[in-house]
Each structure stands twice: as C-alpha cells, then as structure tokens.
Design a protein that fits this description.
The chain is an alpha/beta fold. It folds into 2 domains: 132 residues, NusB-like (N-utilizing Substance Protein B Homolog, Chain A, Orthogonal Bundle), CATH 1.10.940.10; 204 residues, Rossmann fold, CATH 3.40.50. It contains 15 helices and 12 strands. Strands 5, 6, 7, 8, 9, 10, 11 and 12 form an 8-stranded mixed β-sheet that branches. Strands 2-3-1-4 form a 4-stranded antiparallel β-sheet, with no helix packed on it. Helix 1 crosses helix 3 and helix 1 crosses helix 5. It binds S-adenosylmethionine. S-adenosylmethionine (SAM) binds next to helix 11 and strand 6. Pfam families: Methyltr_RsmB-F (PF01189), NusB (PF01029). Belongs to the class I-like SAM-binding methyltransferase superfamily. RsmB/NOP family. It comes from Phaeobacter gallaeciensis.
C-alpha cells in the first residue's frame, strides 16, 4: 500500500471497531487481536491502532466529560466511539482539520448511521475549539465502581487514587536480561530489583539484543516470583500456567530443568517462540494444571486471575469486565494451589502468585492454604536482597505489590506472591 491517507483512516476505523468490541461486547483487546482484528493493517498502522485504542480507553472518562456538554443525547455506540477517538486525538495535539474530516468520513460511510455525520462534524468542531484547554483540568480518570469499591476497601482511597494515576500514565518497558547479558547499551534505568526500565522504547523487536535473545519483556513485578523461587542448576521445576513464558525463561536461564504447563495451545506457541529466540529450553505440556502429576523440587504457580494488576498495560480490562467472573477464578486458584502443593516434594518449595490487586486472589488464598496444610510455612527471608521494600511484606508472609508503589520511577504492576516451604 502506498497511499498514506487511506491507511490512517483504516487505522482509525479499526480503532473504533476495537472500542465497539470492548465497550459493547465486553471483549478484551487481546481477544480481538488473537481473532485477527489487526491482520489487514500494515505494521505502522497496527502500531497506531493499538496506541489509539489504548489512549482512548485510558482517557475515556475525560473524553466523555468533554463530549457530554455538546451532546443532547448519547448517539449509537459506534458513533460515540468515533466522537471519543476524535476528542482524544484533538485534545492530545491532533490537527483539527484532519481529525474532524477523518471522523466525518468514517461515520458518513456507516450503513446505518451515515446521517449522523453532520452531528459528528458540529460536535468535533466545538471540541477542537475548547477541548484541548479543558482536557488538562479534568481529573485523572477513575476506575469503574465495581472495581473501585473493593480496592478502596482493601487499600484505602488515597492508594486507589495513586493506582489510577499509574493506570492513566501507562507503563514503561521493563526488561529481564539473560544471565551474563550486558544491557547497558539499551540505556534506561536499572531498577533495585534487577529489571532494566526503558521509558521511551519504540519498537521492541528493533532494540539491540532482541534478535539475539539476550533479554525479554517482563514487568519488574512479574520478574520477582521466579527470583523468590531461586532455582538451582539441575533442579526439577514445574511451571504451572506458564505461557507466554517470562518466568519459564528466567528459571531455564538459571539452569533448572523446567516443565512448563499451560492450557492454551495458542499461548504455548508464544512460549515456544520465546524459548527459540532466547536459545533456552524447557519441556512443554499443553494441558490442565489440575491434571499434572509427579514430584518436583520446586513449583511455580502463576494462577489465572482477574489480572487487575495489569491495568496500566491493559486499560480495556475495567471496561470489558464487570467482576462477575472473579468468583469462579478465586475457586480455581484455591484448587490449583492445593493440587500444586501435592506436586512439591517433601523439603521442596512453591511460589504462588497472581497479577491481581484483590486480596481474595492473593493474601486470602495463602492465609487459607497455611491453615489447611500443616506442612506449609511462608518464607519471609526470601525477600532479603530482592530490592523490594520491607513494608510490602504482608501479615501472612507474602509480598504485595501495587501500581501506586514506585510512582516516581514509573510504577509497577499489581502482584501478589508468596514462597511456601514444605516440611521435609
Ligand atoms: C497469568 S498467565 C501466566 C503468565 C506466565 N506465567 C508468564 O510468566 O508468562 C495465566 C495462564 O494460565 C493459563 N491457564 C488458565 N487455566 C489453566 C489451567 N486450568 N491449566 C493450565 N493453565 C491454565 C492461561 O492460559 C494463561 O496463560
């Protein structure tokens, strides 16, 4: 494709489609991408579409506040999403003429709502005049109440405001190095926990050392569970719920014999590609964690969860979900924890972790497991020398990480993790 203008239009049209899917159908962006939503786009339009969709979802509340002044009634969702995209583009420096024309063109071609193009034109012209000045005065977008309420209850109102600021700012790129790889050429900041953080990375696959497999992308918080497990060369380790494999790679790079299990064949394929790129190896099993058997020196269980700790990178989540699935996940986590415990040999150890902000998926799970299994103890010493703050250690002996921590450094994913030792 050589013509630039139609491509930019296609990127915006696809962005609106993605917003319709998230806000209308409750689908996650990752599901839309896996189903091929970006397939027909050129690489630069793909990147632009993803960036635009993330920006709109992060600032949806601001866009709606600006738009509500100019709308007598809410238009159909897809037209509203065109207005939202136009508003976000205009308020973040987009050229008024180009943005307004693009949205009018897109809406004019809509089979059912083409007649609303005049309204779109009028509203976006008003937004172009006044929106950019109003934008910065609006509050940082809040989480929807279904999630905000339990988080305020768990962590307090001030902490949640800090989390929302982190969600709005988005996430820098964190990198885990293969042992021995020198990543100083990448610049950025070496975090106290050992990850390297790049604030303005650009295209990941173009960075030095990516092709050679010297490193992989992994949030600083997500890099800690494998560090806590501290596997030794030759140990037999089971990585349950392993794909796309950030933790598998850490443990394989440390010389352990890793068996990685995941129920999703598609995600396991990504793990396979990651291992091939980094030149690391592990035994891969596509299957149910609950059906695994055997005895291992160490088990890492990164259980499926609400993923509410990852909203900085996945701002679609609070809009696509409503919390109704979380009860089932909490039950599954408890079952997995109990099953995984059976697979730890006497004298062995296990890390249980979830990328969730909800205590029900973290602190409470470990508290209950400690009551249920007399041979289980939580190891608090594993946090020594990890680069984390002692104040983050929880009552039952786990580590609670939150996006309002390290605010001055660019924050971190929300995570819970605990190292559980089995009596010998
Ligand atoms: C939080 S993600 C894992 C991230 C991974 N540990 C990493 O570090 O890259 C949770 C994973 O659990 C997998 N999963 C969900 N239910 C499962 C089950 N019953 N058995 C095995 N894997 C499961 C999902 O496919 C998903 O890949």
């Amino acid at each position: 494709m050589s013509d630039k203008a139609p491509d930019a239009l296609q990127a915006r049209r696809t962005t609106i489609y993605l917003l319709d899917q998230v806000l209308g159908e409750g689908r996650l962006l990752a599901e839309c991408f896996a189903a091929g939503a970006l397939e027909k786009l050129q690489p630069q339009d793909r990147a632009r579409t993803q960036r635009l969709a993330l920006e709109v979802l992060r600032s949806l509340e601001r866009a709606d506040r600006i738009l509500q002044k100019h709308l007598k009634k809410k238009p159909p969702l897809t037209v509203m999403n065109a207005l939202r995209l136009g508003t976000v583009e205009l308020c973040s420096g987009g050229a008024a003429h180009g943005v307004v024309n693009a949205m009018v063109t897109i809406v004019s071609k809509h089979r059912r709502h083409g007649q609303l193009k005049g309204m779109v034109n009028a509203v976006l012209r008003k937004v172009a005049d006044h929106g950019p000045a109003e934008w910065a005065k609006l509050r940082i977008p809040r989480l929807p109440n279904w999630l905000r309420k339990p988080l305020v209850q768990a962590w307090g109102a001030e902490a949640v405001l800090g989390m929302e600021a982190a969600h709005f700012a988005g996430a820098p790129l964190d990198i885990t190095a293969k042992p021995g790889a020198d990543l100083s050429v990448l610049g950025g900041e070496l975090l106290p926990t050992g990850s390297r953080r790049l604030s303005d990375a650009g295209q990941v696959s173009a960075l030095p050392g990516y092709e050679a497999g010297d490193w992989w992308v992994q949030d600083a918080a997500a890099a800690l569970p494998a560090q806590m497990l501290d596997v030794q060369p030759g140990e037999r380790v089971l990585d349950l719920c392993a794909a796309p494999g950030g933790k598998t790679m850490q443990m394989a790079a440390d010389g352990a014999q890793v068996t990685a299990v995941d129920a999703s064949a598609g995600r396991m394929e990504r793990l396979r590609e990651n291992l091939a790129r980094t030149g690391l190896s592990a035994d891969l099993i596509v299957g149910d964690a609950l059906e695994q058997t055997g005895q291992f020196d160490a088990v890492l269980l990164d259980a499926p969860c609400s993923a509410t700790g990852t909203i900085r990178r996945h701002p679609d989540l609070p809009h696509a979900k409503d919390g109704s699935e979380f009860g089932g996940l909490i039950e599954l986590q408890a079952q997995m924890l109990a099953h995984a415990w059976d697979l730890v040999k006497p004298g062995g150890r296990m890390v249980f972790c979830t990328c969730s902000l909800l205590p029900d998926e973290g602190e409470c799970q470990v508290e209950e497991a400690l009551e249920m299994f007399p041979d289980m103890t939580a190891d608090r010493e594993c946090f020594d020398g990890l680069g984390t703050d002692p104040a983050w250690i929880t009552e039952e002996g786990g580590l609670r990480l939150r996006p309002d921590y390290w605010a001055e450094r660019g924050s971190m994913d929300g995570f819970y993790m605990a190292l559980l030792r089995k009596a010998g």
